[in-house]
Amino acid sequence: MSTFDAIDDDRPTVVFAYTIKGKGLATEGHPGNHAAQLTEAQMRELAAASGMDLEDPWVTFAPDTPAGRFCAETAQRLRREPVTDHAVAEVPAELGFTPRPQISTQAALGRFLSDLKHVAPEVAQRVVTLSPDVATSTNLGGWINKTGIWSPAGRHDWFSDDRERVLRWQEGTSGQHIELGIAEVNLVSLAGELGSTGQRWGQPLLPIATIYDPFINRALEPWTFSLYAGGSSIMVGTPSGVSLAPEGGAHQSFNTPSVTLEIPGLTSWEPASAQDLEWTLLEALRELADPDGDSAYFRLTTRPVAQELAGVPEDPLLRERRRDQVIAGGYRLSARPAAEDEVTLVGAGAIMTEVIAAAARLESLGVRAGIVCLSSPSKVFRSVQERSEVRSSVRSAIADELFPAAHPAPLVTVLDGHPHTLAFLSGVRGDRTRNLGVTEFGQASSVSQAHALHGIDTDSIVSAALDLVGR
């Protein structure tokens, strides 16, 4: 207390407390005392030396002592009035815009944020985007132009006279994007803090952070801890996979689909099309707005994909059914029923282009191949895990709908990531399975070369299917 009394309150002060680990105990200074446990006799000895009673370990300081008065004053100073909880406005089911015929899911993310501000401004005003020096390379430019950069004190834009620059870098206290520099740990830590504002201050925010997919590994521990502590967020890993071929192995990723599937309180998504991205991002925002909802990880890509391949139904009823399936974790792209499959091809994300091409090639060879597109392997995994539970719970039948037990067929799973991620599908109904994916470090190449190198190109998928059907 005398040390605290001597502190100059007009300036920051650091108190260095030099201690001896386990002082006065049998473990004092011992190199193994980090995990050492005291015996009851040692605990009683410690209590006596500290003027405490082991039978009443939570006794407070006497109120008329300096320590007691200090604690009481601190408690009064830190006490705060109850906060009023404010709810996030209702998140729409759709935004109502038709995507460009050829677009990547990363580009669709930028389009989504701009459209959200137009269609649902009450929701968009609670969105805060973050990036570790990759705002423009993860397609946040349009959103930044509309909302600005947050800064406690606006700074002069030294490049404002650059006529060729499309991005308007305007800083101020009302901005909705925060740029952190190349500091992924800071990124996820801030995302967790922003995701805690609802429970702390009654004003929920919806943090969406973009990060190059392989670099989530740098920040996995603090991000996981923030999720554990209740700091919800949406993390967007983009670009991802070996489809980012020209940048080489340093920026390509392989383990992130599996890692993010395994984190509690987190739903991992890998949408294949712009429409799938819109539906799943809106669902993720709904979850984020719910105090008991999940956080989300999105794995996107810079690879443009023909949107017609998604086969989104035009009929309103069938379209809504497709949306339900996408949110549940996946859907069947084949026009024929599962009962006619000789083999079923399963993929996720941008690699669906190769999966669909492989199915067409197999058809030309006389092999009937079904196609299943997974929007969220983690949702399908949960469905498999929960289907045999006896307790009352909210369960999804998506795994049984995609892979009906009455119509088994060999499976070829394909992912621009580690094949282990989808290996659990063999347990849905006991099918023979070939899991294709990335198991080696990448190289600088074209996209087609990268896919062939890792065995996730069309020819590799066709060969795996022919092996399973004995052709």
From TrEMBL:
Oxidoreductase as UniProt keyword: yes
- In what residue span(s) does the Transketolase-like pyrimidine-binding domain sit? 103-307
* EC numbers: 1.2.4.1
- Could you tell me the keywords of this UniProt record? Oxidoreductase, Pyruvate
Known InterPro entries for this protein? PDH/Transketolase (IPR051157), THDP-binding (IPR029061), Transketo_C/PFOR_II (IPR009014), Transketolase-like_C_2 (IPR055152), Transketolase-like_Pyr-bd (IPR005475)
Which domain of life, per UniProt?
A: Bacteria
- Organism field: Brevibacterium iodinum ATCC 49514
Pfam families xrefs: Transket_pyr, Transketolase_C_1
Q: What is this protein called?
A: Pyruvate dehydrogenase E1 component
* Any GO MF annotation of the entry: pyruvate dehydrogenase (acetyl-transferring) activity
